[in-house]
Amino acid sequence: MPLRSDIVGVVLAGGSSSRMGTDKALLPLAGAPIITYAARSLSEVCSEVIVASGDQGRYSFLGLREIFDVFKDSGPLAGIHSALLEARDHPVFVIACDLPFVNRELVEFVIDSGNLTRTRVASAEGRIQPLFGLYDPKILTHLEHCLRTRELSVLKALAGYEHDVVVIEPSLPFYRPNILQNINTRSDYHTTSGRSLASDSL
Fold it and tell me: Does residue 161 form part of some domain?
C-alpha cells in the first residue's frame, strides 16, 4: 500500500516525563527506545513523519525532522499546535511517544473512520486517548486560543471543539488489550519491560 502524502505523521515527545523521572521516550523496551514504536507505526502509513520535541532536539537517532513548540512549557497541546502549523493545511496524525503497542493497522483504522476534515481520536476499554488521533487543520485556531488562555488539557480542548471518538473494539483483528496503554510511570515501565514481549506484540 502506498504511503499517504495527504497526512503528516507526528510523534509527540516534548513532555517533561515528570512521573517517570527521566525521558521515557528513550527508555529501552524490547531492544529499542520506546519512541521508536510510535515512529515506526507512523512511518508505515505516512510519507512524512516529524517529531514534536518541545524545545530541544533529542531524537536525531530516529532520522526524522524535529520541530519545536511555539508555546513553551505548554504540554502536548503545544506539540499538536506546532505540528499543525508545520503541516501547512494538512491534517496531522499524532501518536504520543509513550504508546509503544500501537500499530499500522490501528493508525489506518482511525484514519479510515471518517473524512480528513474531521478531528477524531481513539478510545479503548472505555478510555479516550487524545494523543492518538487525526487532527484537522481547522482546529488550529481553537488550539491557539486554548494555549493563549492557558487551558492546556488536550481533553478539555477537544471538549470545546466538534470531534469524533473512534472506539477500538475487541472484535477488530488487530486488537490487543494493551493497544493504547501509556507508559507514564516507573511502575508502568517495569511491568511492561519485565514481561516477555513477543515480536507480534509491538
Answer: yes
The residue whose grid cell reads 501518536 is 95
Can you give the CATH number for the domain in which 134 is found? 3.90.550.10
Contact 9, 49 (CB under 8 A): yes
Classify each residue of 15-39 as buried b or exposed e, where b means 16 or more C-beta atoms within 10 Å of its C-beta.
bebeebeebbbbbebbeebbbbbbb
Q: pLDDT tens digits, residue range 11-58?
A: 999 765 555 557 889 988 888 999 999 999 999 999 999 999 976 778
The pLDDT score that the predictor gives to residue 199 is 37
CA distance 39 to 103: 10
User: Can you read off the three cell numbers belonging to residue 69?
Assistant: 513548540
CA distance linking residue 88 with residue 134, whole number of Å: 15
Residue 202 within a domain: no
Instruction: Count CA atoms closer than 13 A to 11's CA, side-chain side.
Output: 31
Residues 129, 192 contacting (CB under 8 angstroms):
no
Q: What is the domain count for the chain?
A: 1
Domain that holds residue 126: 4-193
Write out the three cell numbers for 26. 528513550
Question: Which pTM was predicted?
Answer: 0.90
Burial class from Cβ neighbours inside 10 Å (0-12, 13-18, 19+) for residue 134 reads buried
